[in-house]
């Protein structure tokens, strides 16, 4: 009877009182709820505040903190471990892996809008230490896309018309940024052309010769925030076409910046990305040697770069992502969440391309006829 009374009394206690008396464990769920209506708060790029999706109430963000770089060593990647509070979902259509907070759900893929999204096992990995917040709103990104599509003169009219209703998804893509002090000795052999007159009479002629010279030296180069994409959905070339990202404006990772957006988990590891960064640095060193010694031809360049004080950041960079179908074919595009620049593909209207070709041929024929009349 006494045990029954205890159970009945326990049911009347608040959750906090139960925790205090050891009757239950309190579960903390890290959501961002509005104090007015209880709805979810999301990060608003325009105001840089947390905004309620229901009543529009605004709340200040945490004071931004600078990103603290992490020292890179050959053992950095071996220290990977599962970081709590997140789960991973995988799109069965395009293969993207998205990380979500444990209390969030994903019904569609933010990259291809496919509804086939399934939970996956936890994937060990690093937690982001930096985030570059969205500065372009969804409306601004959509306007940038419409302007971009308008300039595609061969795009079908139907696509341009339906594009006004194309939905967009905000996604943080994974990137690695590297900084390092580079010491690079080099030797090289270059040549400069010069001309001489040889022969006489009818055999007199100008001959081009090459004067070869060998050089050596050292280049000291400070690499800062070299960004290497780690996404399965965007290439390094596309990243650079987007105008890159102003990583100097990044702030220490805070979950508030991610609220309302998806976040892709990196598909390229830290060590592999550092190798890619070294390849880019190597090519930059070669170009620096070439620029330092004016020449016309190149025989060889030998460089031996070494790296010190190397650091990295696992940064999340903002993209607005969308796509559409035209004649059963998918066309995707992305908008830089910092500067509004667009990269993507658009379908080509066969009729428009044919008309343009005919007009081009007609213009060439017209110019040819005009020249004929002037010379005739």
Helix content, binned percent: 25-40%
Radius of gyration of CA atoms, rounded to a whole number: 30 Å
Q: What number of structural domains do the residues give?
A: 3
- The residue ranges in which pLDDT falls below 50 over 5 or more consecutive positions are 1-30, 352-357
Number of strands: 16
Structural class: alpha+beta
Strand coverage percent: 25-35%
Please give the count of helices. 8
Question: What integer is the average pLDDT?
Answer: 80
Kindly report how far apart the N and C termini lie.
121 Å
Secondary-structure element order, N to C:
HHEEEEEEEEHHEEHEHEHEEEEH
How would you summarize the topology of this molecule?
Blueprint: H1 2-12, H2 15-20, E1 41-44, E2 49-52, E3 58-59, E4 70-71, E5 86-91, E6 97-101, E7 117-120, E8 130-131, H3 138-150, H4 157-162, E9 169-198, E10 205-229, H5 236-241, E11 251-252, H6 255-258, E12 262-264, H7 270-292, E13 297-303, E14 306-326, E15 329-336, E16 342-344, H8 350-375
Parallel strand pairs: 8-14, 9-12
Antiparallel strand pairs: 1-2, 2-3, 4-14, 5-6, 5-7, 6-12, 8-11, 9-10, 9-13, 9-14, 14-15, 15-16
Write up this protein.
This protein has 8 helices and 16 strands. The protein has 376 residues and is of the alpha+beta class. It has 3 domains: 30 residues, no CATH class; 30 residues, no CATH class; 212 residues, no CATH class. Strands 4, 5, 6, 7, 8, 9, 10, 11, 12, 13, 14, 15 and 16 form a 13-stranded mixed β-sheet that branches. A 3-stranded antiparallel β-sheet has the order 1-2-3. Strand 5 and strand 6 form a beta hairpin.
Keywords:
alpha+beta, globular, single chain, 3 domains, 16 strands, 376 residues, 8 helices, 13-stranded mixed β-sheet
């Amino acid at each position: 009877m006494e045990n029954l009374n205890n159970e009945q009394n326990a049911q009347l206690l608040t959750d906090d009182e139960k925790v205090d008396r050891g009757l239950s464990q309190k579960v903390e769920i890290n959501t961002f709820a509005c104090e007015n209506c209880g709805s979810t708060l999301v990060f608003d790029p325009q105001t840089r505040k947390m905004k309620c999706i229901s009543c529009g109430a605004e709340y200040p963000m945490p004071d931004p903190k600078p990103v603290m770089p992490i020292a890179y060593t050959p053992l950095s990647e071996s220290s990977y471990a599962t970081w709590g509070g997140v789960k991973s979902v995988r799109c069965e259509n395009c293969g993207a892996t998205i990380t979500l907070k444990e209390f969030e759900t994903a019904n569609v893929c933010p990259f291809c809008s496919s509804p086939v999204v399934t939970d996956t096992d936890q994937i060990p990995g690093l937690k982001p230490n930096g985030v570059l917040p969205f500065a372009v709103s969804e409306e601004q990104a959509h306007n940038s896309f419409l302007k971009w599509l308008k300039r595609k003169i061969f795009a079908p009219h139907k696509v341009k018309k339906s594009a006004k209703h194309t939905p967009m998804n905000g996604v943080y893509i994974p990137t690695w940024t590297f900084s390092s002090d580079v010491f690079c000795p080099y030797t090289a052999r270059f040549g400069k052309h010069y001309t001489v007159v040889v022969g006489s009479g009818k055999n007199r002629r100008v001959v081009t010769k090459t004067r070869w010279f060998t050089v050596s030296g050292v280049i000291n180069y400070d690499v800062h925030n070299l960004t290497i994409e780690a996404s399965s959905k965007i290439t390094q070339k596309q990243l650079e076409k987007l105008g890159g990202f102003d990583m100097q404006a990044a702030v220490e990772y805070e979950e508030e910046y991610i609220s309302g957006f998806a976040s892709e988990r990196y598909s390229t590891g830290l060590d592999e990305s550092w190798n890619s960064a070294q390849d880019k640095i190597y090519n930059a060193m070669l170009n620096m040697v070439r620029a330092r010694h004016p020449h016309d031809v190149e025989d060889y360049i030998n460089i031996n770069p070494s790296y010190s004080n190397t650091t990295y950041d696992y940064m999340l960079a903002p993209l607005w992502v969308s796509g559409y179908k035209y004649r059963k074919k998918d066309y995707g595009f992305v908008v830089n969440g910092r500067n509004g620049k667009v990269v993507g593909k658009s379908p080509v209207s066969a009729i428009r391309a044919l008309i343009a070709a005919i007009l081009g041929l007609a213009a060439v024929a017209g110019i040819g006829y005009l020249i004929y009349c002037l010379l005739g």
